[in-house]
Amino acid sequence: MLAVVTISWRPDRGIRQTVLALGAAGLTVIASGALLDALWLLAVGVWAVIAAMVIELVYRP
Prior knowledge:
It contains 2 helices and no strands. It has helices spanning 11-36, 39-58.
């Protein structure tokens, strides 16, 4: 017998919001690091964007 599975899993919404927030924060930090000429801010922003991309790839619904 074949069961019908609905995709209404609530944590997917939370993961999506986390990815968007982390990506937006990373891009904001990258922009401020570029404006202030601070390499450490650029590095923190790049790592935040990388983390958002990894989370998106791992938790893709």
